[in-house]
Amino acid sequence: MADSSASPFPPKPFEGRTALVTGGSRGIGRACAEMLAAGGAKVGVVYAGNTAAAEETVAAIQAAGGQAEAIQCDVTNHEAAAELVKKVVEDWGQLDILVNNAGIIRDGLFATMSPENWGAVIETNLTGVYNFCHAAIMPMMRARYGRIINMSSVAAHYSNPGQANYAASKGGIEGLTRCLATEIAKRGVTVNAVAPGFVQTDMTEAVRNAAGDIITKAIPRKRLGKPEDIARAVCFLADERSDYITGQTVTVDGGLTLGG
Ligand code: NDP
User: Fold this and answer.
1) Who lines ligand 1 at CB under 6 A?
2) In this model, does residue 260 exceed pLDDT 80?
3) What's 63's domain CATH number?
4) Does a structural domain hold residue 242?
């Protein structure tokens, strides 16, 4: 652990560390993967099916001098997640940082929400986090070190009509985060969540196109979030020196949920 006279922003805080970022091929996850790699981590870019996007992300990281590998894995598949983490630990020697970021939306009013759209969101957003945490905590506890960051959303706390499935998944993530944090804190593993507001990614494209500048006007900071805004908070929590922060949710929303 660095002493209090050390720089808060060393150039390579993740040197020698390994990381997995689920949904690391696009949007917020890509920014997390790129920032962790720029900080010295070797990064596994986990994606569902868009191989071209994953390869593009890995190429961008490598072109910038970082280390990354694209790894296809559906986060809803418990056995596949376990196998992936086991292989990373075997091949890379350890897993230090896990960013559970993969997520989807299937919006619709509750009265007409199908079991398929309920289940797909819960399985991907919440069970996916369970699957990867479950696979990662034993090796992390054995190593007496780990940083887990789960991607929540302001939707966990603030009501968005049409997002009951999504809000339930993100609320679940925050509960899981707090509970797991208390269970494994003594083993040197921290578990935190980041709750983004409205970020410019593929996920929000349709809403952005429909809403025009209404959203920007509602954000006190007067701009949409960029993936890097969220990645910065993730990297802060992933830092070795963030050792005394666990079980927390950091909101990154430009003031959207302040109600001003
Ligand atoms: P994008 O839609 O831009 O990217 C989603 C990523 O998740 C892709 O890499 C995709 O892989 C991957 N993914 C989706 N399903 C699976 C799966 N079953 N298994 C593995 N990977 C999967 O999303 P965002 O970057 O916008 O969102 C990232 C996270 O941030 C999500 O958890 C989301 O809920 C959260 N968030 C986003 C906000 C926003 O405004 N954008 C606001 C609040 C929270 P592939 O490319 O192969 O499809």
Assistant:
1) 22-23, 25-29, 46-50, 53, 74-76, 101-104, 124-125, 151, 153, 196, 198-199, 201-204
2) no
3) 3.40.50.720
4) yes
